[in-house]
Amino acid sequence: MSMGSPTLKLTLTPRLNEGMQAGMQVAYVLEAPDIAAGETLFHLPKVIVGVPGAQVETAGMSCADEAGALALLEEDEAPTSAWTYWRWTAPRATLGDLHVSYFAPVRLVDASTINGPLYDLRLEAGGLNGAGITFLALPDTTTRYDVSIAWDLSQSPAGARGVCSLGEGPVEVNESLEDLAYTYFMAGPLSAYPDSPASVFSMYWLSAPNFDPVAVGRVIERLYVTMCEFFQEPEPGFRVFARKHPYRGNGGTAVQRSFMFGYSDGYTQTAEELASLLAHETAHTWPRLDGDQGETAWYSEGTAEYYSIVLAHRAGFTSDAAFLDQINDRARSYYTNPLQTLSNHEAVERFWRDPRAQRVPYGRGLFYLIDLNAKIQAHSGGARSLDDLVLEVVTRRRAGEQVGESAWVDLVAAELGEQGRQDFAAMV
Fold first, then answer.
1. Cα–Cα distance, 424 to 416 (Å, whole number)
2. Angle 213-230/293-314 helices, nearest 10 degrees?
């Protein structure tokens, strides 16, 4: 917790008992937000990257401050290529603390549901899981808050537990509301490895998986420790969530300090496939550039690909032969993609309409970074490498600095001169 930040006290009540509509009862108290009449009190995506948000009903929402109940008005925000939000306003300014309460029902999924990013709040094996972005209606602000998260399990079966990316049970952190939104939540009769809330690394699941979760957890725990050492992580802590799909599909989605991966009976992943997926999503914890996600995806996905492969090999977790297989597999995937000649901007425009466009940043970023690393090493006689640039970005962002594409190009140019700028322009 920090001195001087306003507070947000959040209570989550999973509705999981038989005979009731499944979902999450959300209640929070926001310290004196001072929101003007007609300005956004809170907002929630109707749909984000193709995934629907919780169908919250305005009539069932309660919002009040020191002056009494606030009449809520609902309207749509201007849509973007990645999401459509709706927001709630009030005809008067807020006075004092804001008290908000509502019910977020789970999304109903079945064998016909299309696989996508693992954000939606859904029911699974007597529990529920999902990312806050699809069920937490929060103010649209960059303010950091002293956030407390409490679980009320009175409407859950005996033995139920509540956990999120930030910890199990009651949690107190200093976070932006965007970070809180991009947090995973899971509640119900869950299992864990290791089964200790105090663990730096934890893995959670609800359904009985078609793989050995303890064995997978041990592998990713070792890799996470290796990555923490490389990226000089000052506050280690990471959680993995496993979700079983009722449809054929797999994949993973990373948020801050955690990720969720999906699996199904119709697609059984091998231990090697799971290890590769988990390594990629874990690497997402550190390297990223500030800016529109679509425009910087080459970096976030490229660095996740690069370091998930390279660090595992450096640490001796994968053999030389396995390392080469992984590189060649990525090469085949990228260079046989019919859309690999699209510009980054063109790929972004098609990103959520064509799965082939979604794969472009992964391969393009990876092979740009491989090429860049070779050139930096050659230019410096082996004294410098890609690692120096990536760690510099991590250090700057950790200190609160905004680091976008232009700053990245400056770092590259400092190593390779004008050739570095030309290479970047060609990649884009």
1. 11
2. 100
Other Cβ atoms closer than 10 A to 409: 16
Taken in order 224, 225, 230, 235, the sign of the CA dihedral is: positive
Helix axes 355-379, 320-335, angle to 10 degrees: 130
pLDDT of amino acid 2: 56
- State the DSSP string of 177-191: HHHHHT-EEEEES-E
> Cis peptide before 79, with omega less than 30 degrees from 0?
no
| Percent of the chain that is helix, strand, coil (3-state, to 5) | 35, 25, 40
Is residue 208 predicted with pLDDT exceeding 80?
A: yes
The DSSP result for 372-420, as a single string, is: HHHHHHHHTTTS--HHHHHHHHHHHHHTT----HHHHHHHHHHHHTHHH
The span from the CA of 107 to the CA of 84, in Å, is: 17
pLDDT digits (tens, 9 = 90+) for 161-199: 999 999 999 999 999 999 999 999 999 999 999 987 778
Q: Is 8 helix (H, G, I), strand (E, B) or coil?
A: strand
